[in-house]
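Notebook entry, cofactor series.
This is the third protein in the set we're modelling with a bound small molecule. For this one the ligand is flavin mononucleotide. I'm keeping the input format identical across the series so the outputs can be compared line by line later. Sequence and SMILES below, as received.
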Amino acid sequence: MEKSILINKNVVIGITGGIACYKSIDLIRELRDKGANVHVIMTEHSTHLVGIKDFEKASGNEVQTTLFHPKIDYKDYIKKNKPIKHISLADIADLFLICPATANIIGKIANGIADDLLSTSIIATIAPVLVCPAMNVKMWKNPIVQGNVKKLKNHNYHFAEPEYGELACGYKGVGRLANLKKIIDRIQLLIKQRNDLKRKRILVTSGATFEEIDPVRIITNKSSGKMGTSIAEQAYLRGADVLLLRGYSSVEPNYDINEEKFTTVNDLFDKIKKNIKDMDIMIHCAAVSDFEVNEKKGEKIKSSSELHLELSPTTKIFEHLKKLNKKIFLVGFKAEYKFSKDKLINSAFNLLKSADADLVVANDVGRKNAGFEVDTNEVFVVDRKKKVEHIKLADKRIVGDRLLDIIICKVL
Ligand SMILES: Cc1cc2nc3c(=O)[nH]c(=O)nc-3n(C[C@H](O)[C@H](O)[C@H](O)COP(=O)(O)O)c2cc1C
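Returned structure with ligand:
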């Protein structure tokens, strides 16, 4: 029999005040049968619908219900400067499940509200979160609820969509808790994905280079660093050992990601050379200047007269990378402006061949909501056989995650 992926995994399950909350007892039993350690957090409202003792019996662990434990003297902890563990379940979770999820908890997380133990723990966790909504059809169809769901999906929260059927409130429609088997399958898949880059060393470059003209002026580009940073974050969340080489960016990486900053093209290349030999995968997403000034001025150039700059092409870093580490799985980005799909793919494939790369991600920075500065992107991923995978317009975190799915299929 195949070994369960859930053995010794910590699944934290949040129970909210929906009629379907009794169904989570069967879910918990099944998760434990598959080897998971299950920890339950109940909201105050849910305790009116199912007894705390039922969940303690099913999970084998004490159920947590309050942010401030009645037996802890917090004032004493603060006075003695002792660490206070109030979000420990958020830290130990391999997966966080909200089942059933009320319209209320969905609205709270979507708006960053942390006013009880469950919502605070969800906001504090970096584990994948699987939300299993269950509610009356009119509540589910409410545009505000749907807007909150969309917002959470864009932030890479996962959903086990509710199903159509008879609802406990007497209505018929979409709103029934997803089938438990479907929920268990999603949990197993998410746990698998969370570890699928474990022990893989990944080098990601991101952001824009600066080439000095004089001590105050530079040549740069519109890269915000959001795409590369999102890839580094998603790789980190999937267990990879990530090094992010980051140039100018409008965003800072979340999580505890190792990073080194670079400024010029040559600085970036030096840092790549220093690190590439130890890496399994490299994703070169930095927007590298194509030109540098022939003669950098040591003092600020006067602005009173016309200025002619002589520029030379910079090193094509991407074309050197495979020579520096023959075994590396090399992924590059090709940005074009207002190209047809075919032209875009051809341009990416030509870059792939010239660099002996494994994948090139083509994005048209002239398309609406794609490319530089914005939070979303739409890309075509081209492989060595010129097979193309389209990642549709989505938040850059989701695009990064899908790109990692494609890379993993080729690497593992
Ligand atoms: C008997 C009963 C059943 C309820 N069932 C649901 C439900 O299935 N889904 C839902 O979103 N809200 C349901 N509610 C409303 C929630 O309990 C309410 O919005 C509450 O504020 C949720 O709090 P919580 O998310 O902190 O548990 C129900 C309320 C009652 C009284």
